Amino acid sequence: MKDIQNHKDDRNIDIDQVGVKGILYPITVLDKNMGKQQTVAKINMYVSLPRYYKGTHMSRFVEILNEHNRRISLQNFTEILEEVKSRLNAESAHMEITFAYFIRKKAPVSGSEGLMEYKCTFKGSVNHGSDLVTIIRVPICTLCPCSKEISDFGAHNQRGEVTLQVRFKKFIWIEDLIRLVEDSASSEVYSVLKREDEKFITEKAYENPVFVEDIVRDIAQKLDADSNITWFAVESENFESIHNHNAYAYIEKHKKQERNHGI
Question: Measuring CA to CA, which residue among 41, 19, 37, 20 is closest to residue 28?
Fold first, then answer.
């Protein structure tokens, strides 16, 4: 049968990324407390395509996923990318895996248990070296310091979301990144709360007011002190409860210049 993808193309234009998007796929990821966790990911996979090839072989991306038997983690991410690059005869390979990660959390007073969902992404590429970024999105609660200061009683509070991206030298746990973020908020967010828990969280937030600027600076300070982290970007967004806009802050820092981050 004719292989149209391998036919010559006369337009003389390289393609930076070509591949497949939106693959829904069951995966197993490492879990610090339980060993491993089953979840479903949305996966994007691409390769570079030289100007002299008409197309790439789309089916090979899914074949490679199947061969890894659903097990995808920070530890074998680069290995999968190298295999994609080799099997498709490409100069570079890229992959993004976004999935829901669940942590069992107890309410602070009642001890009621529930599963908290966190959106996580592993994003990586291989070319002459390898590059891997871990991205987590963490829901938080914030209370406005200004509102507390100027009010005779009460202060407005709201849910927010922190998006944290990191590059690192060696393996890092998702749970540790989530804990770092939650400790920088006015309060954590829980999936199950009783009245005594709501009282505790409301009062805790009132005693720990923070602006979005405070959150990104606190997280940046902690990451800057961690020698395992080589680059980070942190953004915080408040879904304001009394304003018709959201509050937002962002910090990015390159701690080292090298971009080869083997696991």
Answer: 37
Distance between CA atoms of 205 and 118, rounded to whole angstroms? Answer: 21
pLDDT digits (tens, 9 = 90+) for 87-132: 998 999 999 999 999 999 999 999 999 999 999 999 999 998 899 9
Q: Write the DSSP symbol of residue 71.
A: B
pTM: 0.89
Rounded (5°) CA angle 205-220-229? 130
C-alpha radius of gyration, the chain, whole number: 22
> Residue 116: how many CB atoms within 10 A of its CB?
18
Domains and CATH numbers, the chain: 4-254 (3.10.270.10)
Q: How far apart are CA 161 and CA 212, in angstroms?
A: 10
pLDDT value of residue 71: 76
